[in-house]
Specification:
Blueprint (H helix, E strand, L loop, with lengths): L1 E10 H19 L2 H8 L5 H19 L14 E5 L5 E5 L7 E10 L3 E10 L2
Antiparallel strand pairs: 1-5, 2-3, 4-5
Helix pairs in contact: 1-3, 2-3
């Protein structure tokens, strides 16, 4: 068993500006339909949720990148951040299997100015 981790922090204003300047292109490149629906449902704080999911995807990449043959083996939308029935975030890989990945855990947090995510990946080798 091997454990790898990834972490990321981002300014919420940075994501807010990217969405305002390039809404359709940026959102559709980075987020899945489920993620967009979730973030948009948060109306007044939707940018915090978009930023948190962006940080989560960066943290995921950092945790698994050493196992990818090529950094282009995974796209932004290959990893989807969903919430379980208790609101705990989970990672679901879409149309992509990460060889040797046994499990992945994620923690996301945000406040007015920043969003952060931490990922722990457990490998079965």
């Amino acid at each position: 068993m091997k454990i790898t981790c990834g972490t990321d922090i981002i300014e919420i204003d940075r994501i807010h500006k990217l969405i305002d300047e390039n809404k359709e292109n940026f959102i559709n490149k980075i987020y899945t339909e489920n993620e967009i629906a979730y973030c948009e449902s948060k109306t007044l704080v939707k940018y915090q949720h978009y930023a948190a999911r962006f940080a989560a995807k960066e943290a995921i990449f950092k945790a698994i990148s050493n196992r990818l043959k090529n950094k282009f083996d995974i796209a932004w939308k290959d990893a989807e951040i969903i919430n379980d029935e208790n609101g705990k975030p989970e990672v679901r890989f879409l149309n992509k299997q990460i060889e040797g990945l046994d499990s992945i855990e994620i923690s996301i947090s945000h406040c007015r100015d920043y969003a952060t995510a931490n990922v722990v990946a457990i490998w079965n080798d």
